[in-house]
Design goal:
By secondary structure, this protein is mainly alpha-helical. The chain has one domain. Helices cover about 75% and strands about 0% of the residues. Helix 3 runs antiparallel to helix 5. The longest helix has about 40 residues. The radius of gyration is 21 Å and the shape is rod-shaped. The two termini are about 20 Å apart.
């Protein structure tokens, strides 16, 4: 839950440090935990990116399934894919 808030910009590393210290953890322990939290954020970003890709693939599949044979023969696949995926950042 905190990772989701962090990605949304509603929770910061300083918030995490304060929360961990408020729970009685030492500075040393907090410093060992922070890289794990940062890694969790990176993993969550990758998973979100993957979900966006899958959603776009589903949209493309529906769009192609609804086309007639004539439309399919005239389809510019490269342009269709570029258009569909242009809203998804390549860098996670």
């Amino acid at each position: 839950q905190k990772i989701t808030l962090f990605i949304a910009g509603q929770y910061t590393e300083d918030d995490a440090i304060k929360e961990l210290k408020d729970r009685g953890l030492s500075d040393e322990t907090v410093q060992r935990i922070l890289p794990l939290l940062q890694r969790g954020v990176e993993i969550a970003k990758i998973l979100n990116w993957k979900e966006e890709i899958w959603a776009k693939e589903g949209e493309l599949e529906k769009q192609i399934d609804s086309m007639t044979l004539e439309e399919l023969l005239q389809l510019d696949v490269k342009k269709l894919c570029e258009s569909a995926y242009s809203q998804i950042p390549l860098e996670v």
